[in-house]
Amino acid sequence: MQMELTANELAAIVGGTIQGNGEVKVNNFAKIEEGTEGCLTFLANPKYTQHIYTTNASAVLVKSDFVPEQEIKATLIKVQDPYATLALLMKMVNDSISRPQGIEQPSFVSEGVDVSECQYIGAFAYIGKGVKLGKGVSIYPHSYIGDNVVIGDNTTIYAGVRIYHNCVIGKRCVIHAGAVIGADGFGFAPTENGYEKIPQMGNVVLEDDTEIGANTTIDRATMGSTRIGQGSKLDNLIQVGHNVEVGRNNVFAAQTGIAGSTSIGDGNRVGGQCGFAGHIQIGDNNEFGAQSGIPNNVGSGNRLIGYPAIDARSFAKNLVYIKKLESLFKNHK
Amino acid sequence: MQMELTANELAAIVGGTIQGNGEVKVNNFAKIEEGTEGCLTFLANPKYTQHIYTTNASAVLVKSDFVPEQEIKATLIKVQDPYATLALLMKMVNDSISRPQGIEQPSFVSEGVDVSECQYIGAFAYIGKGVKLGKGVSIYPHSYIGDNVVIGDNTTIYAGVRIYHNCVIGKRCVIHAGAVIGADGFGFAPTENGYEKIPQMGNVVLEDDTEIGANTTIDRATMGSTRIGQGSKLDNLIQVGHNVEVGRNNVFAAQTGIAGSTSIGDGNRVGGQCGFAGHIQIGDNNEFGAQSGIPNNVGSGNRLIGYPAIDARSFAKNLVYIKKLESLFKNHK
Amino acid sequence: MQMELTANELAAIVGGTIQGNGEVKVNNFAKIEEGTEGCLTFLANPKYTQHIYTTNASAVLVKSDFVPEQEIKATLIKVQDPYATLALLMKMVNDSISRPQGIEQPSFVSEGVDVSECQYIGAFAYIGKGVKLGKGVSIYPHSYIGDNVVIGDNTTIYAGVRIYHNCVIGKRCVIHAGAVIGADGFGFAPTENGYEKIPQMGNVVLEDDTEIGANTTIDRATMGSTRIGQGSKLDNLIQVGHNVEVGRNNVFAAQTGIAGSTSIGDGNRVGGQCGFAGHIQIGDNNEFGAQSGIPNNVGSGNRLIGYPAIDARSFAKNLVYIKKLESLFKNHK
To answer: pTM of the prediction?
Structure first.
């Protein structure tokens, strides 16, 4: 934590109330089942409730309405949302950690590009012609910023990211190592002599506050833009096809794929390894179970799972019926 | 488009016929639903037909037999294959865009490697010992070309590609950022003390005109070669196991995986997130739906989907029957 | 093979017995169906038995109890485990191949880092502050070793690997090109104004003898460590979420994903494209078929497949019953 606070002090910072010894000191974070003396931990997922009675952590963030069923050694700090509160505290500590700064050598900055307001340009970074970099931008080693790319203020590009020419990255974005932004969309026209490549002449636009996971790939549009909307978060190893349009505040878990020209609204929560067909429309605030396949348009507010994805309750029922098939066929003999 | 042409001039270039004002000028490409004045667009997928009546694009490439059902503001250019024609026009424009050239510094070229006929060696590119580079080869920044790799004429290696030693890349290939060609196949022999690594001593051969997507991985053979046949196109984040042999003119959509020693013929069309088991044989001209799992040999000319993949019509029927199970079981109570 | 041995000499090395001409010489390895004169090949998978009667290889490693049903031209070398024996011979040859060594320039080594006992630091490698490198470590070009990373003796980091700060890599590990170790876990708290990032303050620990495939991503823990146990092998394009704990001697085939906080025991064999839900416990020595989805806890010693994964025999039965549904419904009309 790089600082030491008492439970009372923490409670004051986060607007919580203390149950137990408010003078206990914490200087580190830990998971509840791994907590040791001096650690602050939290209880958000009820699956982990059992651990609160045995944890060796010194203090635990719990929900305001949490009522222990046994004695608890640790000091409780009661808050409305333990996970969000933990996040806030971690953010405070995290923000106090010093970040790399300055321009390391050797790096490659094309003539005429202004890097004077950047926070950090790592060694072996490559900045193409006509690139525009905002204030406080960090570009880690081995990242490639193609010609005419625009990167907004306070965005962080981790090591080995590749951003092809003409793409536009917003403010406060985070792009993790190995992500590829703006490679050619997968477009080929069949001909008598095999496939003819369709030039991919558009770009990718990542709006403000997006986060892109490690080794995720977002293809440039054939024409126009592939777009990831403000505040959307993509995990690792995700594929986004050309001309996809993703709205605001969606979360996509790892290894999901979105085929070309599909549009996705706002506030969707997508499990890992899902696949969206191309040229479909998805509404807002849906929840897709992991490994779902989504072949057709979807409205808003649904909870879907399966291959192809159906209503989650129907999916569960079908599994029960399939399990019963053996007895059914045996009875019919 | 970096040039301006009238619809009449375009029609002359592509052998099309004009319906509407042939003197309208276009200077950019756009999707039909995003077209603005001065844009050329196209209509190939019937799902988008509605947009032709409202598009603000100045001209639209349509099929020769297209008959409007309402008035259309845009000029129509009738051609046999609108998408292929668009591709041709985009290619013409694309070819006129200037490409990077020369040898940027710092780059690392091993002694004795001749780069004099290369189009471009980007900064921070690494060229190993004994590498042979053809005419017009472009190697973007941060790419790693291992010892003794051979790269054919006019091939483009985008930023951050890794090609391990001894691999062979054909002519006119395109390899996108982050692709890894020739990493060790996944071969381990179980022993009493855990797994013993099997050295992977073969290589990868990409034949002419192949295109490999961003962050795709193609493992080197244990012995002999893993091979991608002439004209085959692999999208992003695809896995190709050791000793796989892929024939000519196949297209594989993103996130598909092919396990070791499987052979795939020619002209197959494979949807996203498919998985092919190891040690199987796939024939020619099959179509695999997205997310299919293919555990066994497949002949030629099939349309398959599912997990495991079955005939697409049977798959659709089974979905209907599964949906009916609830009523079936209720009737039997 | 970079050496030439007779079948008799090979048999002496591996403790095998000869059937046929022991004086035949071999100088290369090949698959049985591709073997040419001078090649040593092997027969382990019965699917390939047919090829032993036609192979042009000079010698074949076979099981001690192999009894030919026809005449065989090649010399047989009978051993207990042909694949393991082949691996041993390939390892011998492989070990005799010279590896890159020394420190290439330009590379970036932070002040105070001791690289004197490293085998190889490639050009454009980046070594952060406070990094500790063991004896015989090889770091290929374009790899990024973040601040305070520890790497054990004789570990090989191939080109373009990214290891974020504070991660710990064991001895004799192999990390293939493009792998990303220690990027932020996917942790966000929903708020009224969109998602708030949870800082990911833990690290990744790869224990000794682990191998990590190309472009695989292993996220750092929110708190504590994401851990891959001793001797476990991960193929390409695998996703490991934050706070996952993987035990010893597991093998994971390509494109599998493990969601956050899941723990997996020892000795499991996991097919390609599997998905493990978050916050679940998996025991030891299970086998998971390719593309399985594992939503819940699993004990030990199971053979599972499906979405969701069930016992492999039940899965096979269900497929049969589903196939019969058509006749069932037709009979009921």
So the answer is: 0.94
